[in-house]
Design goal:
This is (d)CMP kinase. Keywords: ATP-binding, Kinase, Nucleotide-binding, Transferase. It catalyses: dCMP + ATP = dCDP + ADP; CMP + ATP = CDP + ADP. Helices cover about 55% and strands about 10% of the residues. By secondary structure, the chain is mainly α. The protein has one domain: 3-Layer(aba) Sandwich (Rossmann fold), CATH 3.40.50.300. Helix 2 packs across helix 3. It is flat, with a radius of gyration of 16 Å.
């Protein structure tokens, strides 16, 4: 959650992948249920919103997109569409570094 700002600040291509809390909760619920685990959507959503809040407000390496990052909202995208979008961003940056 801090790759572009802390871990790899000099990367040629930075992508800040985001999705609505509601969609991330739906995805997590589906993942848990596919493994046969109980998954309460409201609890998952609350946990995600709390984690986001804590991460945004922490003093050290708060959650935020790097200034030069491409923000990619994956709320309405499939995993394949996300991969294709990131590949497109990477190809678009070839030769610009």
């Amino acid at each position: 959650r801090d790759i572009g700002t802390v871990v790899c600040p000099d990367a040629e291509v930075k992508v800040f992948l985001d999705a609505s809390a509601e969609e991330r909760a739906r995805r997590r619920q589906s993942e848990l249920e596919s493994r046969g685990e109980k998954a309460d959507y409201a609890t998952i959503l609350h946990d995600i919103e709390e984690r986001d809040r804590r991460d945004r407000e922490r003093d050290t390496a708060p959650l935020k997109a790097a200034e030069d990052a491409h923000v990619l909202d994956s709320t309405e995208l499939s995993a394949i569409e996300v991969i294709e979008a990131i590949i497109g961003l990477a190809k678009g940056s070839e030769g610009s570094g």
